[in-house]
Amino acid sequence: MTIVPSQVPVLIAGGGPSGLAAAIELGRRGVEVCVVEPRTTLDPLRPRAKTTSVRTMEHLRRWGLADRLRSRAALPVAHAQDVVFCTGLFGHEITRFPEAFGLWTEPRDIAAEAGQQVAQPIVEELLREAAAALPSVTLLVGWRVDAVIDGQDGVRAELAGPDGRRRDVHAEYLLGCDGNAGVSRSAIGSHYAGSSGALPNLSITFRSRELDERPLCALGVHYWVIGAERGGLMGRLDLDGTWWAIVQGIDVQAEEADPVALVRTLAGAEIDVEVLATDPWSARMLLADRYRGERVFLVGDAAHLNPPWGGHGFNTCVGDAVNIGYKLAAVLQGWAPPSLLDSYERERRPVAVRTIAAAGSQEAFLAPSFAAAELDDAGPAGKVLRAELADALRGKDPEFHSLGLVLGYDYADSPVVVPDGRGRPEPELTRYRPSAHPGARLPHVWLPDGSSLYDLLGDWFTLLRLSARADPTPLVTAATAAGIPLRVVDLGHLPRLGAVCEADLVLVRPDQHVAWRGDVAADPAEVWTRVIGGGQDTT
């Protein structure tokens, strides 16, 4: 029988991607955590999110899980990297977007990892295993958090488990990773604001032998079908005949919602279809008005719901967990003040605002809005129409090429980074321009031995010495005096990196974002006071 702790430093309500990521961040640092997750099984027939972004893959690399995930992914990156727009799987290609979602097959300097197409249940299964393997993490599967009472001195949660068992758990902090239907948001009086997508959608998981046996119009990782009758998306879940489809603008109550007929319409042929699962849904663009109470923090879908266009939702959840995870560990270990936690919402809520806006803007470019009966015409008229549509579809590019959003978000206005008064790149959606300004993700480079710069960073703060003339001693001495864990990495032999970072010394946070940069720290103690949240008022 599972032993339910009566007291725990951190209780995590919800064991989806955000809850498990937070548990790994905390557990790797020795913080005792209890994760409460109602689902006893993960349904592989309901793949949900399928895009693990470049940035999330970098976090998985940091946890030692990137290669393990790729080995389990049923769709290797090498299989396909392009999103193809077509009139049907057996119809005409209209246009394509190469290397979508950061899917590249050769290493690039800008990131430690490429993206990966993999069904969310596979990611969650791996994260469950990784979290459960940590000695300080307890994973309660089949339990749920039914009620939460937040307070200045801690949190009381009521848990419901198998066979009607109930337990009260007291925690110093609670991370609300329980999604849109959980209790955490209401426990702190937080409310969603926003809207839902204009068109209903139906997801279908199916198998088809003929899609493996017959040549398709093109090779793609996703297919956007612009048809005369229906529009939607399709793609492989594996290389053994399992596919997913999303039919846009479909009324699931109507007779026309026959999933077999819908798949055949998208394919453009009377193929064999074995339906494995269906799910109706609507895109939602919702943001909580506050991310925290006294000791309760909202993480992931409990704080924001993103439409799926661009594949940012699950990845934004992981980013939240990484941010709050290291900060909560620092506070619980006693070398950072509780005020550090105030920076979580200040940093992560603007990221959600920008991400929801970027994904929501694609609602105007869904497949049904481009439908035209003549698109499949094999003659000159059809060819002209497809060329015109290809030009119009350029507006879809930010959905598939969004490294400016995925890698370029920063925390430059955060109270726990030290501004240096220099400019920073203007935020862009598609283009990522590396920058080491305070708050930015540390620019990535591959080192001469083929390893990643990120592989040298510690679990806590890392001070990069990028010039032989730079003296890290004052910052090291001040960190030691304050009990702050710090790793020093000497990279003075890499002048190219110093030129990119535009400083001799760069202080990197545990989440790989720059906390401070300079040639010398005028007041080292003040630098540390600020970056651990003990400086300016962060409320």
Number of strands: 21
Characterize the largest beta sheet: strand count, sense, and whether it forms a barrel: 8 strands, mixed
pLDDT average, as an integer? 91
Structural class: alpha/beta
* Beta-strand content: 15-25%
Unreliable spans = none
Q: Strand sequence of the main sheet, in spatial order?
A: 5-4-12-13-14-11-15-17
Q: Give the termini distance in whole angstroms.
A: 43 Å
The proportion of residues forming helix, as a percent range, comes to 25-40%
Number of helices: 15
* Rg value: 24 Å
The coarse overall form would be: globular
Pfam family, one: Rng_hyd_C
InterPro entries: FAD-bd (IPR002938), FAD/NAD-bd_sf (IPR036188), RIFMO-like (IPR050641)
Organism: Nonomuraea roseola
Domain FAD-binding: 8-357
Q: What is this entry, summarized?
A:
The chain has 539 residues and is α/β, with parallel strands linked by helices.
Can you describe this structure?
Strand 8 (144-151) and strand 9 (154-160) form a beta hairpin. The protein is an alpha/beta fold. It has 15 helices and 21 strands. It is globular. The protein has helices at residues 17-27, 54-62, 66-72, 120-132, 184-187, 210-213, 259-267, 313-332, 343-360, 380-392, 397-400, 403-406, 473-482, 495-501, 524-531; strands at 7-13, 33-37, 51-52, 83-86, 93-97, 116-117, 137-141, 144-151, 154-160, 166-176, 192-207, 222-226, 231-236, 242-248, 274-288, 296-298, 304-305, 461-465, 486-490, 505-508, 514-518. The protein is 26% helix and 24% strand. The strands form 4 sheets. Strands 5-4-12-13-14-11-15-17 form an 8-stranded mixed sheet, with helices on both faces. Pfam families: FAD_binding_3, Rng_hyd_C. One of its GO terms (molecular function) is monooxygenase activity. Keywords: FAD, Flavoprotein, Monooxygenase, Oxidoreductase. This is FAD-dependent monooxygenase. Residues 8-357 form the FAD-binding domain.
